[in-house]
Amino acid sequence: MARVVCIGVGTVGCGWATVFARAGHEVVLYDADPAMIASRALPRIDATLEQLAHEMPTGETTETIRARIQVADTLAEAVAGAEVIQESVREDLDIKRALFAEIGASAPADCRLFSSTSALPGSQFLSDIPNPGRAMVGHPVNPPSHIPLVELCATPLTTPETVEYAHAFYDKAGMEPITVEKEIDGFILNRLQYTLVAEAMHLVGEGYCSAADIDRVMTSGLALRWASIGPFMTAHLNAHEGFVGFVAQLEGMMKKMGADARTDYDWGPDLVSRIHDEMARIRPVEDIAAAQAWRDRRILATRRLQAGETPTDA
Ligand SMILES: NC(=O)c1ccc[n+]([C@@H]2O[C@H](COP(=O)([O-])OP(=O)(O)OC[C@H]3O[C@@H](n4cnc5c(N)ncnc54)[C@H](O)[C@@H]3O)[C@@H](O)[C@H]2O)c1
């Protein structure tokens, strides 16, 4: 098993640490704010492992997995002997550039370098490092401990061996990698997500419905299908003749909705406050941590249903 280093141990880094430790790797944590690792990251990792106690890999316990996670005090100590580095620091191009310059200089030359960036094409910060062929984006969905998708996007300099290694590495860790064939801001998931959110802001902003009802349209409507089949298969199954039949019947409507969607909607602070207040009436801000744990249990329950098992602790 490999020595896998998680650099940046906030929301996403904590999730990655549990994924890699559960996969049997020796995990090293490093963060620019070392005090935070003890006060926030390790308790969070412990809580996640506890929540996953019903989903333990064969022969493992929470304790055996937790024992694989160590903390490094310096970046140099963290990256020494690393086989894989998963970077999850703030989404800031200058910070990622400076960090990868440092990593590139101190990590072993053959160490694979993966970035969790949500939207930045890797070539903007992974090209000017020694041996850039070993680096690419491995973008997870939060929390990666519960949601398996990881979007793999090479830079023009990434070698085919690194791409192949990344697929096998994430796959063996229980993730489901997909390939983003060409660099694009936001990769696939966030382009879809924020296009939908932009139109949702437009619909709420212009008074077509409440923010809570937008959420209900997803949880009681679209997402029930989309948890099992995506939008293309939904369309394919909605017409006797399959996808071509669906498009033949509804092409005009599909194109009109696309053209009418206000993805450039210029929401202002009043709309943001209004939506915040509506959400906070349902989930007060002080309850967010508890609500995140509830959300994660729901995700696990959905995954069990997807796998054909009965949920036990939803
Ligand atoms: N939160 C999400 O939903 C989500 C989902 C997928 C991908 N991502 C991406 O993952 C990355 C991390 O996001 P997050 O939400 O975990 O952020 P976060 O703010 O929760 O955590 C970032 C951590 O990085 C540390 N850090 C900052 N600069 C550093 C440096 N130079 N060296 C070491 N540590 C440093 C911070 O102290 C902090 O603990 C971002 O690129 C983000 O876009 C986030």
Describe the structure.
There is one protein chain. This protein is α/β, with parallel strands linked by helices. The chain folds into two domains: 3-180, Rossmann fold, CATH 3.40.50.720; 189-282, N-(1-d-carboxylethyl)-l-norvaline Dehydrogenase, domain 2 (Orthogonal Bundle). It contains twelve helices and eight strands. The protein has helices at residues 11-22, 34-51, 62-66, 75-79, 93-106, 160-172, 189-205, 211-226, 231-237, 243-260, 269-282, 288-306; strands at 3-7, 26-30, 69-71, 84-87, 112-115, 135-140, 149-154, 176-180. Strands 3-2-1-4-5-6-7-8 form an eight-stranded mixed sheet. Strand 1, helix 1 and strand 2 form a beta-alpha-beta unit. It is globular, with a radius of gyration of 21 Å. Nicotinamide-adenine-dinucleotide binds next to helix 1, helix 5 and strand 6. The site of nicotinamide-adenine-dinucleotide (NAD) has 23 residues, from helix 1, helix 5 and strand 6.
Question: How many beta-strand runs?
Answer: 8
Examine the secondary-structure arrangement and name the CATH architecture of the largest domain.
3-Layer(aba) Sandwich
Give the strand order, joined by hyphens, for the main sheet.
3-2-1-4-5-6-7-8
CATH fold-type name of the largest domain: Rossmann fold
Gap between N and C termini? 33 Å
Q: Compounds present?
A: nicotinamide-adenine-dinucleotide
Number of helices: 12
Largest sheet: 8 strands, mixed
